[in-house]
TrEMBL record:
Residues 186-267 form the FecR protein domain. InterPro entries: FecR, FecR_C, Ferrdict_sens_TM. It comes from the Bacteria. Keywords: Membrane, Transmembrane, Transmembrane helix. This is Iron dicitrate transporter FecR. It comes from Chitinophaga cymbidii. Gene3D superfamilies: 2.60.120.1440, 3.55.50.30. The chain crosses the membrane at residues 91-109. PANTHER family: PERIPLASMIC SIGNAL SENSOR AND SIGMA FACTOR ACTIVATOR FECR-RELATED, PROTEIN FECR. One of its GO terms (molecular function) is sigma factor antagonist activity. Residues 312-370 form the Protein FecR C-terminal domain.
Amino acid sequence: MNNTFDLELHAHTEALVYKRYTGEISEEEEVELSKLLATHPHLESIQQELDRLIAAGVLDKTPHISLTSSQRAAFEDKIHRSSRIRKVRQWAVAASVLVLLGVGGLYFFTRTTPNNTGVTAGIHVATTGVVLTTADGQVIALGEKKEISTPQGSISASMDSMLVQGQGELASRLNELKVPEKLDYAVTLPDGTRIRLNSATILRFPFAFQGDKREVYIDGEAYFTVASNVQQPFIVNTPSGSIEVLGTEFNVNTYVANRLITSLVSGATIVHSEKEKMQLSPGQEATVLKGNAIEKASFDPSTTLSWMKGVFYFDQAPLKEITSMVERWYGYKVVFDDLALRDILLTAHLNKHQPIQSFLTMLQNTTSIKSYFKEGSLHLH
C-alpha cells in the first residue's frame, strides 16, 4: 500500500474511532469503521490504544464533551472539505486529539462551559480502585506492583492480581477485598485456588486455611479454579446459599438480590440452600432463590463466562438487570425517567471495551429508548 495513502487511511480511521468514542458517529460512519477494521486488521491498534487509555483511567469510557460554539465550528471546519483526500488529511488533524490525549488534547475533554443542561463536562475518572482491608484493620490500595507484609502474611500484588501467603496467628482470620465498578481482579490463595472477580464484587477470605475445610465468602460475581484437596473441601458462601467443592472450575453470580447462580465447568459441586442441597455435573448450573427450591439447568459457557473477556450477554432479561451491569462496568448511576421501562425484556450484550455510547445507540435503535447524562447519572426515557 502507498505510504501516503496508508497514513491517510490510518488518520481517517483514528477520526472515526474518535467520533465513536464521543458518541457523535453516524450510522453510516459506524458501518464504514466496522468495514475498515475488518478489512485492515492492523488498524485495530487504534481502538486498542483507546481501550488502554480508558483502562488506565486516563480517559473515561464515556466522555462528556462541552465545546464552545467557536471551538465546535473550528473543529467541524477541519473535517468538512470539498475533496475526499483533503477531507481525510483534515481528519488527521481532528484525530490528533486521540494521539495527544495525554497532552494538549485533553483540553477538549476537560474544559467546562457553564450551561443549564446539567450535563457534567470533563473526564469522569474512577476515584477508587481495588482495596484490601486486612484482618488487623489495614486498608491497602492495590492496582500496582508491590510487595506487602502484614501480621497475617505476605501479599505479592500486580496491577490486576495478587498472591497471598499466610503466617502467624492472624492468618486464618477473614480479610475483605473490594473490587469497584469498572474493574476486575484476580486472587491466588495459598492453597493454589485462583479466583477472578468481576466488577462490584466483595470477597472475604483468610490468608491461610486451617481446620477441615476451606471457606470464603463472595457477593457479586467470580470464577473459581479450586485446587483439589479431598481432605479439605472448599466452601463458597453467598447471601443466598453455599457451594461445596472438592476441586473444580465454576462461576458464581449473586448480583441479583436473594439469588445465587452457580455454573459448573468441570469437577463436581454440591449447592446448598436453606431447604435442600443438589449436586451438579459439568455443564449444569443451579439457581437458588431464597425460600424456593433449587432449579437446575444446562448453560452455555461461551455466554455465561464471557464476562471474563469483557462481554456480558442477556437473553430476554429485564432492562433493569441490564442497566445494573451498566452501572458496574461503566460507573454511572442509571435513572429511569419512565419506570415502566425497567421491565422491558431485551436480548442484548454489553462490551466493556467499547464506549457506553455503543450500547446506548443499540438501545435506541432497537427499542426507541433515548438517553441523556445529567449530574453524573445516565437517564433513560
